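Re: [help] complex structure
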Amino acid sequence: MTYHTLLLILVAAAAVAAVMARNLLLSAIMLALVSVGASLVLFDFQAPWAAVFELSVCAGLITVLFVSAVSLIRHEESKVAENRARFYAMPLVMGIVAIAAWFYAVPYFESLEDWARLGGRANTLGTVIWDIRRFDLLGQVSILAAGVFVVNSMFPRRKKQK
Amino acid sequence: MINSFSMDWYFITLIFFAGMYCMLVSRNLLRQFIGLEIMSKSCLLGVISVGAKTGNLALAQALIITMIVIEVVVVAAGLSLLVKNYRITNSVDIWSLNNLRG
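Output below.
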């Protein structure tokens, strides 16, 4: 049981907790925990750039967005008549899927590994694309800013009533 | 004992299923977004796992950064639409969306 596997177990457990949580705020916080776990996995894969993006944007910005949305629709939570039995059945369904995937999906993934040698040839292409991509990094940052400005429509300025 | 790559993809399958189950079962719009986020997290882990396996880690990171940017914009736009919808229909039930009229 390595550190890597433990991190993946943490992510899976946080995902199940996020789905099963009755409180929407708790669900949003569990989603942040999923993001933190995913970014730790990325650090473990020696991918620090993607991990930093994941940690700052997904665990930070998206959590803020979810929490603000939850606070705006707060008193609505109890009114939505959801069938909780489906959520309580989730560990059972997850267990069935886990056992089935262990016996059916894992041999498929192991057979996929033979194809990794073919994909490994494009190593220079990766560095070229990564060098070229530095130009449109600014464009991506501006798209991110546009996404933040969309939040502006969530909090519209009220017009004065005459 | 199975190897590391298959172990990664085993957990990626489970995380993807958790998000899909959330989207299938819930009627709350916010939970739909949470399920979408969980699914996209599992896709992200899949991309980085394949990138590490084939030695294309730089390309995988570039793809992931693009994916995160798009994900943020989708979630921000979706949540703002949700709040707008809540102010109009006074509900976050997904079934309240079926009375859209021009």
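Chain B has a mean pLDDT of 86.
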